[in-house]
UniProtKB/TrEMBL annotation:
Protein's UniProt keywords contain Membrane: yes
Origin: domain of life: Bacteria
Organism: Exilibacterium tricleocarpae
GO cellular component, one term: plasma membrane
Residue ranges of coiled coil: none
Annotated TM spans: 6-24, 31-51, 63-80, 92-115, 121-143, 163-185, 191-216, 223-241, 247-264, 271-300, 306-331, 343-364, 370-388
Main location: membrane
Membrane-related topology note: Multi-pass membrane protein
Gene Ontology biological process terms in this record: regulation of intracellular pH; sodium ion import across plasma membrane
Name this polypeptide is given: Sodium:proton antiporter
Length: 403
């Protein structure tokens, strides 16, 4: 593939993202929904004009994991206030580790039972579905919390949970996918050990990368160089963890961002002056690209032929989420950090699915007979969370007296 073709395809992705931004402005939609519509529109247009987008099943995983996710994770972690995260760290970790496992298995069990076709949709397929849908996307909910002037602590808990459960859900997905494809068959008995080693191994490598990045920033003492170092750290920490150390790249990026931000907390008005703006536009752009990609590959047949599976997965996930929140909140109370009841309801209904779920669904190998069923369920559920949960979370927050 020549460089001019690669550049043209990259510009096409950017064009879809910018079209989504225009639709957001003109139609006053959420950015994710506007970019989804842009992707659907270009999906209809591309065959007519005969343009090769370069989007292939075998390239989507690398594009999403090595290019898009590092930016989205680093941007989300960078904007969390360390002192608030410290205050709600215990509940966030309980929601992100045991909570993700509970949500995954409860959702998987209900989907497996609901579909009731072990030959076409085996237990491992249900587990993959549960793992993909365990990760939450808090962007829309946190924006509504800020607009309604809800407690900042609740927003921090939602963002903190999402960050950690993104990492744990991706690790869980990798473990289950290895079992599904046969790559991890010999390690089936040590799946939990693999999960923990990958999760915490990524945390350690990310913390080291973050510390090195902070030292380099202090040595360079330049606003422009700081942005360059931070962007390099986002991609470099992910590549090091995933490709060389074979641990969680998502966890590595997250810890790299948190450690760097903490070490440079005294430089907010010096070297970090432009960092916030840099991550704002990078996060917006790559989030727009990801939802546009979802629109590009989505088809009407997903809903016409898999509508029953989509209807099954929606209540299954809500039940799994409710059980996970309840158990994690009870454990948090026992550890001296109770989560208010109205916050728990918000966490259940406000647990939207978005970027990570789409990324994992797009990365499913075509060698799995049930990949299309899982992808259809994930896309259908993401649309449900955008159109139903996302639009009703604001009124729910007011009804619960949170804002």
């Amino acid at each position: 593939m020549t460089i001019d073709i690669v550049v043209g395809q990259a510009l096409f992705l950017g064009l879809m993202a910018m079209t989504g931004l225009l639709l957001q402005r003109l139609l006053k939609l959420d950015l994710t929904l506007a970019c989804l519509l842009a992707g659907i529109g270009y999906g209809w247009l591309v065959p007519v004009i005969g343009f090769d987008t370069g989007v292939r099943a075998h390239t989507l995983k690398d594009l999403v994991f090595f290019v898009i996710l590092p930016v989205l994770i680093f941007e989300a972690a960078w904007h969390i206030k360390p002192h608030l995260l410290k205050r709600w760290l215990i509940p966030a970790l309980l929601l992100a580790i045991p909570g993700v496992l509970i949500s995954c298995f409860v959702t998987a069990a209900l989907v497996y039972w609901g579909i009731g076709h072990p030959a076409g949709f085996p237990w491992i397929a249900a587990l993959l579905t549960g793992a993909i849908l365990a990760a939450t996307d808090p962007v829309a909910v946190v924006a509504k919390l800020k607009a309604l002037k809800a407690p900042e602590d609740l927003g921090t808990l939602i963002e903190g949970e999402s960050l950690f459960n993104d990492a744990s859900a991706v690790v869980l997905f990798a473990v289950v996918l290895a079992l599904a494809t046969g790559a991890g068959a010999e390690r089936e008995q040590s799946a939990l050990v693999t999960f923990l080693a990958t999760f915490f191994g990524g945390a350690v490598s990310g913390a080291v990368c973050g510390l090195i990045a902070a030292i380099v920033v202090l040595l360079l003492r330049s606003v422009a160089a700081t942005s360059l170092v931070l962007v390099f750290t986002a991609f470099g920490s992910f590549y090091l963890a995933e490709h060389l150390l074979h641990v969680s790249g998502i966890m590595a990026v997250m810890l790299a961002a948190i450690v760097t931000r903490f070490c440079l907390r005294e430089q907010t008005h010096t070297f970090l002056v432009g960092a916030g703006i840099t991550w704002d536009w990078l996060g917006m752009f790559f989030n727009a690209v990801l939802f546009a990609l979802m629109g590009l590959v989505i088809t009407f047949e997903m809903f016409s032929s898999q509508w029953l599976a989509i209807l099954i997965v929606i209540p299954a996930l809500l039940v799994g989420r409710a059980v996970a929140i309840t158990v994690a909140s009870l454990l948090s109370r026992l550890l001296g950090k109770p989560v208010p009841g109205n916050w728990q309801i918000t966490l259940v209904w406000g647990g939207l699915r978005g970027a990570i779920a789409i990324a994992l669904a797009l990365s499913l190998p075509l060698s799995l007979d049930y990949w299309w069923t899982i992808q259809s369920m994930v896309f259908g559920l993401v649309l449900f969370t955008l159109l139903v949960q996302g639009t009703t979370t604001g009124p729910l927050i007011r009804k619960l007296g949170i804002a």
